[in-house]
Design goal:
- The protein is mostly helical.
- The chain has one domain (11-34, 46-130).
- The protein is built from four helices and no strands.
- Helix 1 packs antiparallel against helix 2 (49-73), helix 1 crosses helix 3 (78-102) and helix 3 (78-102) packs antiparallel against helix 4.
- The radius of gyration is 16 Å and the shape is elongated.
């Protein structure tokens, strides 16, 4: 018999590490851009399309990286781990989009919608890069 023991702990760790890398990199970059006054203060909405595109661009890169990292750390089935992280991201992006769209003054609606739209393609790219 060639059955391998389940490595649930390592699978969970892979997804957590991938998720935390996306969150820390995204919020860290946000903070740096706020400190250098590229972005408006945290308590003000960001309406400038160029700034929203900048935020979307680095979030896409960080999401691909986080899913890549999860796939590389995974004990097996790397694409599955990347896609699980993608679905977690999709959930949080959808939640954020609902909040942003129902609040009138948080910024343009297209930005959180694009986070929803890009979540799974980014996860797939991260998983593919790790394979």
């Amino acid at each position: 018999m060639n059955a391998q023991p389940p490595r649930t702990g390592r699978s969970v760790a892979a997804i957590i590490i991938g998720f935390l890398s996306v969150v820390v990199l995204s919020l860290g970059t946000d903070q740096i851009l706020h400190v250098f006054h590229v972005y408006p203060p945290w308590n003000q909405p960001m309406w400038d399309p160029k700034l929203n595109l900048l935020a979307l661009a680095y979030r896409v890169v960080y999401t691909i990286f986080g899913c890549y990292l999860a796939a590389r750390i995974a004990p097996r089935a790397p694409m599955r781990h990347a896609m699980i992280l993608g679905f977690i991201g999709l959930f949080f992006a959808t939640l954020g989009a609902v909040v942003a769209i129902t609040q009138a003054n948080l910024g343009p609606a297209w930005y959180p919608i694009m986070l929803v739209v890009t979540a799974l393609p980014c996860a797939w790219l991260g998983g593919k890069a790790a394979a």
